[in-house]
Design brief:
With 246 residues, the chain is α/β, with parallel strands linked by helices. It has 7 helices and 7 strands, in the order βαβαβαβαβαβααβ. It has a single domain, classed as NAD(P)-binding Rossmann-like Domain (Rossmann fold). β5, α5 and β6 form a beta-alpha-beta unit. The longest helix is centred in the middle third of the chain and has 28 residues. The chain is globular and about 50 Å long. The model has no long low-confidence stretch (mean pLDDT 97).
Length: 246
Amino acid sequence: MELKDKTIIITGASSGIGEATAHKLADNGANVVLMARSTDKLKELKSAIENNGGKALVASGDVTKKSDFDNAVKEAVSEFGKVDGLINNAGLMPLSFIEKLKTDEWEQMVDVNIKGVLNGVAAVLPELKKNKGGHIINISSMAAHRYFPGGAVYCATKSAVKMFSEGLRQELAPEYGINVTSIEPGAVETSLTDTITDEDIKDKMKEMMEMTTLKAEDIANAIYYSLTQPARVNINDVYIVPSEQK
Ligand code: NJP
């Protein structure tokens, strides 16, 4: 996809990978639609993008609410005329050992990491079909490849995203020209670990993050690479980890 004047919705755009991706895509000519719950942060990001000569729209919303996604698509179409892509990036990682039974956190992960992705696809698909093409990128994880301590539920949600992406690709790419990519990062320096409440895991995470981790920009580059291939090329999976991560 040639990014110039293409409209891409990015969830979880208020920080980390989503924010870096918004800059990368806007710097390369895309109209970016910024979705997350922190409206103030999205407004700041929009200003920063516009100061660099880019185009951005704030569409605040919660990915667990299908109606918020529907509104984001409506606003995007009203501002930019159409929608060409979706980066399903919003996610949570409150790791904990199963025996702690932090069931509210399990549910939050299922709601945001899995149902949020499904809501996004349901909201943009009619638009992409109308345009006879597009691209959906889902942010999965290294956690879809292997378990790590305290990650049973998180790994399960990210495995679901990876397999859902493959099903989407098979159903959408050949018939509708809608390419689908699953991005599977290892450790990236963002605020993702802030939601961890299990003290036993917090210490383990500190040790783990002592290595040289990836930067959010590294993942933004992988997203940019996947999006900008010729339409005949579907990058299925990008498994991208820090060189120092075992
Ligand atoms: O984390 P962070 P990342 N509705 O905490 C948003 C995956 N990943 O950039 O709503 C809408 O900086 C939240 O916004 P807000 C990870 O699983 C990461 O690292 O304003 N948005 C914020 O913008 C996730 O899928 C690593 O609070 C909601 C964003 O999500 C993706 O990368 C490794 C929301 C989180 O930004 C981005 O995470 C890996 C909701 N209900 C996979 N709930 C890593 N960092 O090491 C949250 O394998 N958000």
